[in-house]
Amino acid sequence: MATITKISAQKRPGRYNIFLDGEYAFAVDEGVLVQFALAKGQELTPDQIARIQEQDNFRHAYNIAVNYLAHQLRTRHEIWAKLEEKEVPPAYIKQVAAELTEQGYLDDHAYRDSFVRTQMVTTENGPTIIERKLREKGISPELANREAITDIFTPAEQLATLAKLIAKQRNHYRRNSAREQERKIRQHLYTKGFAGDLITQAMDAADFTPDPEEEADALAAQGAKYWRRYASKGAAVQKRKTKQMLYQKGFDLGAIDTWIAEQETEDA
């Protein structure tokens, strides 16, 4: 048996030094101090001391996890990784995870739902990218899958997001031909993680029928760029390369020929 002869507070808040038989023995968390009702004059057996220290180790790990959770929701994987980073033994990590789960602070199902809703509001990501991000955070395939995500991010909501993306990208590519706009925008939507059938539905609704005036302005802008670029190559190469580049950019061949003829007239 050992007797507690002194209990003193450390400079670090919430930590206390325990002295047994006049000698420093160990330190404990304030919660452990209260849990075991430690007080000066109390006698402790070796078994009691071992249990006190085990509980203090658990409290240390628990406090790390709670502080980590204080900033935002975390997944079980993130909590485990954080505690491993702090060199907490696996047995205590399991205890902490179980305690936090029971208290409702650690819930991968709720995390997934919250994450998907946040992505819907703050990003332009589709279900595929959202699923990948959830997997990266350690959410299991049973929770992070397309079906579960689209139960929250419904097709109707995805179409609304796609419509906004299309409008934004059309403005970005306004100097391109209607055909080139459609190609680039479709490609961009795929990279954002949306399904092909929804992309097609959204693109059809957007209507990429060329506006003659806008198409003519885009052709003139693109054509002038290539006409200048190949001016030093000689008239034949300038004409051929400009025509080739404009056709690759989706402009009508007849409109290209007309524009080049006008340039040749001006240059004559």
TrEMBL record:
It comes from the Bacteria. Keywords: Cytoplasm. The keyword Transferase does not apply. Its main location: cytoplasm. Residues 157-203, 213-259 form the RecX third three-helical domain. It holds the Pfam family RecX_HTH3. Residues 61-100 form the RecX first three-helical domain. GO terms for biological process: regulation of DNA repair. Residues 107-145 form the RecX second three-helical domain. The keyword Flavoprotein does not apply. It is found in: Cytoplasm. One of its GO terms (cellular component) is cytoplasm. Belongs to the RecX family. Modulates RecA activity. This is Regulatory protein RecX.
